[in-house]
Amino acid sequence: MNETPLKKILFVGRSNTGKSSVINLLTGKKVKTGKKPGSTRDFVRINFGREFEIIDVPGFGFMYGVEAEKQEKMKTKIIKYLEKNKDEILFAVEVLDLKMFPELAQRWKERGYIPLDVEWYYFLEELDLKPIVIANKIDKISPFELEDYLNNLVFELGLSGHWKELSDVIIPFSAKTGKGFKELRKAIHRRLEELGELGLMKFIRKKFY
Ligand SMILES: Nc1nc2c(ncn2[C@@H]2O[C@H](COP(=O)(O)OP(=O)(O)OP(=O)(O)O)[C@@H](O)[C@H]2O)c(=O)[nH]1
Ligand SMILES: [Mg+2]
Known about the structure:
Blueprint: E1 7-12, H1 19-27, E2 44-48, E3 52-56, H2 68-85, E4 89-97, H3 101-110, H4 116-126, E5 132-136, H5 143-156, E6 170-172, H6 181-194
Parallel strand pairs: 1-3, 1-4, 4-5, 5-6
Antiparallel strand pairs: 2-3
């Protein structure tokens, strides 16, 4: 096997946050989504010709019906994969459920832990994978509260500045209504431009259907 490795964009995030849904929207490819966390149980490679693939990484944190030991194994598998394939990964997209984020983050912190979503963000940063954070499911948040949710996210991720100035990193989004699609596309465009890979934009849909 002497194939050139495909360039990859990696989608990560806790279970049920909408990773597969976002991939569907962006590419028009049918990726399995589901109501129960753990719909995607193994790495799914979504191929685009011979140059590019999107990797739908199984949700970490909680997988429905999958016991703790298996989850731990999956976490190790994801970390190993990242370390091994680092050079072919263009950048990462972390999808989180903004509606659930504050409560979950609080719960983890009360127990003395770094919230899982935050830990992953740091980890991806550390690997220099320049994560774009999709703050998904904003359709579940009232417009009056959205600002607070986003400020809280910026704070928890340890970023400075207003979320509006961080449009390269945090994208308020709804895979249900398509809100944020244009902004997400722009952020992806910028990442690819920096990498000299703008040719790959042809695989990203122009608008939300
Ligand atoms: N209301 C709302 N529901 C959403 C949104 N995005 C995804 N969902 C729903 O959330 C559930 C999980 O979506 P998936 O795309 O399967 O999530 P996933 O992150 O791939 O989940 P795993 O594969 O289990 O890790 C599905 O029922 C989706 O329809 C959103 O923006 N708003
Ligand atoms: Mg999935």
